[in-house]
Amino acid sequence: MPGLPPPRYAYLGPEGTFTEAALRSLPSASKAHLMPCSTVPAALDAVRQGEADGAMVPLENSVEGSVAVTLDALAVGEPLLIAREVVLPVAFAVATRPGIAPEDVRTIATIPHAHAQVRGWLDEHLPGAALLPTPSTADGARVVAEGGADAAVCAPIAAERYGLVVLASDVHDALDAQTRFVLAVRPSGPPPPPTGWDRTSLVAFIADDHAGALLELLTELAVRGVNLTRIESRPTGEGLGRYCFSIDCEGHVAEPRVGEALAALRRTCLDLRFLGSYPRADAAPESTPRRRGTSEAEFRDGAAWVERLRTGPV
Amino acid sequence: MPGLPPPRYAYLGPEGTFTEAALRSLPSASKAHLMPCSTVPAALDAVRQGEADGAMVPLENSVEGSVAVTLDALAVGEPLLIAREVVLPVAFAVATRPGIAPEDVRTIATIPHAHAQVRGWLDEHLPGAALLPTPSTADGARVVAEGGADAAVCAPIAAERYGLVVLASDVHDALDAQTRFVLAVRPSGPPPPPTGWDRTSLVAFIADDHAGALLELLTELAVRGVNLTRIESRPTGEGLGRYCFSIDCEGHVAEPRVGEALAALRRTCLDLRFLGSYPRADAAPESTPRRRGTSEAEFRDGAAWVERLRTGPV
Amino acid sequence: MPGLPPPRYAYLGPEGTFTEAALRSLPSASKAHLMPCSTVPAALDAVRQGEADGAMVPLENSVEGSVAVTLDALAVGEPLLIAREVVLPVAFAVATRPGIAPEDVRTIATIPHAHAQVRGWLDEHLPGAALLPTPSTADGARVVAEGGADAAVCAPIAAERYGLVVLASDVHDALDAQTRFVLAVRPSGPPPPPTGWDRTSLVAFIADDHAGALLELLTELAVRGVNLTRIESRPTGEGLGRYCFSIDCEGHVAEPRVGEALAALRRTCLDLRFLGSYPRADAAPESTPRRRGTSEAEFRDGAAWVERLRTGPV
Amino acid sequence: MPGLPPPRYAYLGPEGTFTEAALRSLPSASKAHLMPCSTVPAALDAVRQGEADGAMVPLENSVEGSVAVTLDALAVGEPLLIAREVVLPVAFAVATRPGIAPEDVRTIATIPHAHAQVRGWLDEHLPGAALLPTPSTADGARVVAEGGADAAVCAPIAAERYGLVVLASDVHDALDAQTRFVLAVRPSGPPPPPTGWDRTSLVAFIADDHAGALLELLTELAVRGVNLTRIESRPTGEGLGRYCFSIDCEGHVAEPRVGEALAALRRTCLDLRFLGSYPRADAAPESTPRRRGTSEAEFRDGAAWVERLRTGPV
User: Fold this and answer.
1) Residue D312 is nearest to which of C189, C224, C263, comparing CB atoms?
2) Closest-CA distance of chain A to residue B47, Å
3) What total number of domains does chain D contain?
4) pLDDT, tens digit (0-9, with 9 covering 90-100), for D277-293
5) C7 in a domain, yes or no?
6) D286 & D213 share domain
7) Which pLDDT tens digit goes with each residue over C55-78?
8) pLDDT range class, residue D96, cuts 50, 70, 90
9) Across the interface, do A219 and B216 touch by the CB < 8 Å criterion?
10) Is C67 left (phi over 0), alpha (psi -120 to 50) or beta?
11) Taking Cα atoms as reference points, which of A243, A65, A96, A94 lies closest to residue A163?
12) Which among A135, B239, C176, D83 is most buried, taking Cβ atoms within 10 Å?
């Protein structure tokens, strides 16, 4: 029995990066056809054009901040929906080619940024080794495999892929950085069902350039008990001082409080783009106690009461 | 063909007061059985107990303020709904018994309050006449008819009823005071249909004695574009500092913005009593420009959009 | 050494009412010359015209609500300040003329309202006695003293004043009603010093008839951590729908948070009348936890920080 | 008489970039010693360590958004103040080495990003020329001057510096992009005096991770009539979901409304960093009508009124 063809997933390449690791953390990726793309827009466009069924791209990093290119590529163009999120710690492997002893490491291939984050470990364990800059950590692993350097600082998945020997894993600086990745898909059918620990992502284009517009937007969420977890202004490209807002909030569009808040933003914003409701990676209950009167049951009771007022008692 | 029995309307008596005039301004009152009651609670209870089909009572006066006894009698007890409002100017007739010339008027029977309001006219036209205080303006007219005084300051309806000669009508002080009356009925069937110039009346019991509760209540109305036209705090009887709020707002419960706001208050207040949606007496468009995104069409579009998000595109 | 002349205090009469009892609860009343007045405006005008140094008047009752005449008389006319508040339980004495045994009581003189509140006690202890209505409870006591009735329901102070025998004191219905009285004085010098349990009273005339004006007013208080304890709308007399707001809030004008909030209301309202900062009668700490950043020390630190920004570091 | 030594200004290099052009637009730059730095943090640290008197760095671009490295470098470390802002259009010069005719241009040296923005012009005027990527537009000009390519796409200042012949200036894509640069200095003395078209920059660290914290922050600004012109969330590095906010608002700390708002944020935020009050580059009046009651005169009147309440009338 043939079954469905395996899914095709694009991701921000090259192979062996943390983004590939994020993608491979999905059960459905094990049998999938994975397609590395050179840029985030290229990965998303592969989905838009039907060449891929989903695209894994980085959205934000707990130290670096939002990935602007991802926010912008999701905010415009053919609409896509976020169906999943994956959060990975930024923890590197330091790996050598088989046969190279630590004391023989003279060159380390990686991107300078990663090098900086593990400098403490390198100073202690591989003192005196020089940096050979590469465009990505995965490229560093490849260069080591090809003999161009002695050791790489890379994602664990890259060490594995290039057959390197891992000297140390989980090497990172003091900040315990994490990166959040999202899987974007074409809209088709309902979003994934609510789990109780969901997130909803939006892009809001504010109607007027008036001072209180953002305050009003936040009030629409707050009065309905919808907590904001991320807000990021992005230029609309129409001039300094013209922004849209990339927003994450707690809850699922299927919940009454979120649905009512989204309808309110749809009405009061110039434009509102829905980027999906999907389970949060931490699968934890909401951080903030829910405001009185905003549970699903209370919403349904309130709506039913108004309906009775409208039709009148029997 | 016999048809329905004529309606029975209670009102705050005695006969000949402005409240009766307000009631008689309703077309349906022409064939109705009218029942004067000695107090507002008595009139409302006549409706509650099925002895009357409606009760006309004063709610507020533009100079005196709210009629506390009416607010309180509507806020507790078996629920009633306001089905109509009537606004009357506080303008008095000065009337004498037939055969009495103005120059012969020595005594004027009325309530002291009315006497004070027309003192200017009296000083000019009936100088030297003494006040004979009566419990109501209608009582003053009755006393004049019975020969106990020479002239009355009363509602025009009382002069008519007691066969007096009107020396002057539309006598009032500089403030152009108005009184607003409401017709309360038993809940049965839907409220009167929306007209485009409706009012909705509520009593909100605030959940927590916390400082921001009133602010939150007003925010629930404001974000949905529902304008407040009257707010009155009334003690709940549970101690100083414990209040409920008697509220009038623009709009009709059948409108999405009002329905959503009422559902929100129902959820977030300790208790919310709906006192009806009914046409405003001024039949004028709303005073304040509607906030962006709060029209009926925008509400329906927003809700439809969210529904599409939930079910997914075809 | 002669010293100051004794203070002269007006109050809402007649003698022997709860208002006199409230006034006599002030230490300074013991040597004062007390002046009963027939109305609240008369008592306040006695102060305005220099005939009295203060006037004790009722402001609100936990069951009846605000005393509209007091609110209105304080809101307009020559400004007065509230210097003290007194809260008294509404608990009556039932008293007879000496020599009358309970079983001989046939008539009870009091205002009907008070009679209603103690009906339970009367039914049990003085069954069958008829009500003789009087304009005030104090009048009831006087009538009994003069032999016109057998028993009075009155303030304890009236029984004492008229030499009656108290059958029962602290008689009241289930609601434990309280009345709050205030002592109004002419503005001269600073308000009484802050105690830590102060109240500030205001009358706010809203600038525009716009829907959000009350919301904005409450926001000005809330952002500065000033809790509202009473808000009452009163007609301005300019037509239905035109109100001012009589407001009590926690705190003293000498506190930075209150001062800043009052300045904000002064700027944003059409008019703002300050009615005084004075100790709350309950002398209790504030009911609501203070919002972060609104203590006196935090206000002073914030202002000092801004001052440093303005002048620049050394 | 020798006078002061010339100022020393650091800037984001290399020489010949738009940042240098922004710096040279300042009158004080004409006699200054200019120090190109390889990174924004290096330029700011030169000021912090006293090696430079100011540093010009890019803050945001109307198409690309904020320059995260600038926001982050200003948000932490030894405090700096923004003393000036400069806004430049992103408009390129296309320039050749003297003696090269347009029809002989085969290679174009620039950063790929600039190449993409002027592709329309190149396709029309220099068809067939290949891109030679360089790390900056200024490097492209240098490469052309040294004979390594035929034409450069660069800032006008770079063409001038390297003695190139400008084929076209003001070449840009349809978006009319602008970049905003700021001059950061060490705090010493007061900020530049208010001009009437000032901006104030802040970094706010929100006290609690509670949902309404951003809403409260915006409310503190809004009630005082301080308009937000930019808000950007940046990770604090303490984990996903932990942000600080980089904020620009209209007005000057010397104004009462701004000073009061800053004091409020200082009190209610976990930390607040003041980044300066300085003239807006557009020198235009504020975009939004000022909220009632927030002018400087109204603030002073309100404060004076409260002061009179506190001390009492004479």
Assistant:
1) C189
2) 16
3) 3
4) 999 999 887 766 677 88
5) no
6) yes
7) 999 999 988 888 999 999 999 999
8) very high
9) no
10) beta
11) A96
12) D83
